[in-house]
Amino acid sequence: MAVTAAMVKELREKTGAGMMDCQRALQEAGGNMDEAVKILRKRGLSAAAKKAGRATKDGLVAVAITAGGERAGMVELNCETDFVARTEQYQAFARSLAEQVAAEQIGDVEALKSAPYASDPAHTVAEAVAAQIATIGENIVLSRAVAMQAGAGEVLGSYTHMGGKIGVLVKLSAGADDEVVKDVAMHIAAAEPRFLAPESVPEAVLAEEREIARAQVPPGKPEQVVAKIVEGKVAKFFEQACLVEQPFVKNPDQKIKDMLAARGGARVLAFARFRLGEGVGA
Fold first, then answer.
1. Is the pLDDT of residue 203 over 90?
2. Contacts for 144 with CB less than 8 Å, ≥ 6 apart
3. Which of 19, 184, 253, 279 is the most buried (most CB within 10 A)?
4. pLDDT class for 52, splitting at 50, 70, 90?
5. What pLDDT, on the 0 to 100 scale, is given for residue 273?
């Protein structure tokens, strides 16, 4: 029996499940509406839809690096309460998603949701999330994902802080030992850099910082003095926002770039930092 748009609409109204989920259920049920409702209920999608509007202010940031150390992944998985976030079931599920991101290098969260769930390829990741909602009884939202891959000689590292409230992935060039990688990852967690280096700051951001700095200069100053003050404020911005220019948290007298130079000369090539809650609604 052909599945029509009207049938999909009716099933959505009955269950609150997504359009594509309803269409697949109807196709699987051969157009039988009652059977399609059963299929959705078994997958937890109907229950998931009813909880979809509930706030997810808690949860977990999970990280994973493949056994060979060449690929890494990180996800933010949100739920309603810290109680659920601390359960083994929830944490194991978050880890499995991070492991899948690492293994398959799926850094786009929407692509991840539509991909077959690695632990149960008969269902998508979105369906696996829905099944967890049905089992746990709280709304769960997969908010963000990021993947990172190391080239020849490059080193990946990860770090989680505050029981998964903050997660970090970092990639360094050859020459970085385990201690250096850990120190850089911990620094990123603590210091919240926005950019890797001054040259990686978008021109629009620099223009805005210069405009703000110029507005803070008292009127009547000569242009050459104004320009010098503005550039001084921009340099201060780089120290606050750019990883390599930041004072190293373990030794504030030393910038990150100087710490790296003194400990083998490795360079930070990329990093990602998730703080729980920042991805909600993004």
1. yes
2. 75, 76, 109, 274, 279, 282
3. 184
4. low
5. 98
Cα distance between residue 113 and residue 109, in whole Å: 6
Q: What is the pLDDT of residues 147-172, one digit of tens each?
A: 999 999 999 999 999 999 999 999 99
pLDDT of residue 21: 82
Domain borders along the chain are 5-51, 58-195+267-275
Fold of 5-51: Helicase, Ruva Protein; domain 3 (1.10.8)
Q: What pLDDT was estimated at residue 50?
A: 64
* CA atoms of 131 and 45, how far apart (whole Å): 7
Q: CA 179, 184, 190, 191 torsion: positive or negative?
A: positive
Quick one: which of 133, 155, 165 has its CA closest to 270?
Answer: 155
Q: How far apart are CA 131 and CA 147, in angstroms?
A: 24
Tokens for 98, please give them.
Answer: 């991070």
Structure confidence at residue 54 (pLDDT): 75
| Contact in structure between 157 and 167 (CB atoms under 8 Å) | no
Q: Identity (one letter) of the amino acid at 260?
A: L
Contacts of 227 (CB under 8 A, 6+ apart): none
Check whether 271 has a pLDDT greater than 90: yes
Terminal-residue alpha carbon distance, the chain: 39
Give the architecture-level CATH label for domain 58-195+267-275: 2-Layer Sandwich (3.30)
Q: Is the dihedral of CA 167, 63, 171, 198 positive or negative?
A: negative
User: Which DSSP state fits 121?
Assistant: E
